[in-house]
Amino acid sequence: MTAEKKPVAADGHGELQPQDRPRFADAQALEHWFETRIARELERCRVFMSKADWNEHHDWIEANARASLLEALRARADRGEL
Question: What integer pLDDT is reported at residue 15 of this predicted model?
Fold first, then answer.
């Protein structure tokens, strides 16, 4: 008897989690998911930085997070995963 293979995340690492395959009923749901992920990433970055560093680099970090997530979503859409 062979062990059942578990699906892995799109990057090939780890177990597949619900957030690895977002499915959206409409554009508003996608926008909410996107903004939630951005807020989590900004909070994750903020807690590791001094207040002065955060104030100096916040805009760049947010722009980079948005561009990176948008690029990842476009790649998933191209593969038909959204």
Answer: 62
Fill in the amino acid letter for 4.
E
Count CA atoms closer than 13 A to 65's CA, side-chain side.
19
Model confidence, pTM? 0.66
The Cα-based distances of 61 to 20, 34, 65 in angstroms read: 22, 15, 6
Distance, CA of 55 to CA of 74 (rounded, Å): 30
**Bridge-partner residues for 15, per DSSP?**
8
Stated length of the chain? 82
At 27-59, the pLDDT tens digits run: 888 889 899 999 999 999 999 999 999 999 999
Whole-angstrom distance, CA of residue 24 vs CA of residue 82: 7
Q: How far apart are CA 51 and CA 71, in angstroms?
A: 29
pLDDT in tens, 71-80: 999 998 898 8
